[in-house]
Amino acid sequence: MNTLIHVRSPSPDDLNAIVAINRKSLPENYPVSYFIDLIRTWKTTSCVAEYDGKVVGYVILRLEADKSHFFRNEKYSRGHIISVAVLERARRLGIGSKMMVDVIDKTRKVGGIKSIELEVRESNVGAIQMYINFGFIKSKLLQKYYADGEAAVLMRLDL
Ligand SMILES: CC(C)(COP(=O)(O)OP(=O)(O)OC[C@H]1O[C@@H](n2cnc3c(N)ncnc32)[C@H](O)[C@@H]1OP(=O)(O)O)[C@@H](O)C(=O)NCCC(=O)NCCS
To answer: Is 123 a pocket residue for ligand 1 (Cβ < 6 Å)?
Structure first.
């Protein structure tokens, strides 16, 4: 089954697929211009997954500097997973996990990155379980984080 799954870096040609997967899978829908910028800037730490030749999932991971050191020109110290999704018809086939392996591996190789963080809805038990499987821990509850009032769990993986 896994031979049908191919994980690779995103290209500008993947924009429409990524936006469509985002719209179908998550209430957090970013503007197309934001995705264009993310794909261009963070292609080396992000990925898409093809299943049977079609793009069915993506992970966008941005590198960030520690805010307290921002004005001292600190290099990136943290990865931040901005968005993750797999089309419903392709879930529970290991695609999300394969993409997580890819972005964690690429972030480790950057050097100097101490952790990867992400926010996830408190009710999203499936995604939370996937992150726990990779060693992420729940580090904080962010009350009313989402537009509809739901809390986010801030999760962190120390590299
Ligand atoms: C979260 C998501 C990306 C997982 O993608 P996926 O390709 O289905 O993930 P995998 O098949 O690799 O699953 C890995 C593990 O995560 C856990 N998991 C994933 N979905 C789950 C669910 N619905 N319920 C319980 N556990 C789940 C399981 O431990 C699973 O392993 P298993 O199938 O051997 O039991 C996918 O469900 C999705 O796109 N959801 C909608 C968008 C979303 O919630 N994104 C995350 C926002 S922070």
So the answer is: no
- Is 97 close to ligand 1, i.e. is its CB under 6 Å away? yes
pLDDT of residue 75: 85
CA 73 to ligand 1 center in whole angstroms: 37
**What is 2-114's CATH number?**
3.40.630.30
Residue-wise DSSP of 126-143: HHHHHHHHTT-EEEEEET
User: Token pair of 4, please?
Assistant: 């049908």
Task: List the chain domain ranges.
Answer: 2-114
pTM of the model: 0.95
What does the pLDDT average to over 36-60? Answer: 96
Chain position carrying tokens 């993506």 = 58
Residue type, 62: R
Q: Are 152 and 122 in contact (CB under 8 A)?
A: yes
Per DSSP bridges, beta strands 115-121 and 76-86 are parallel
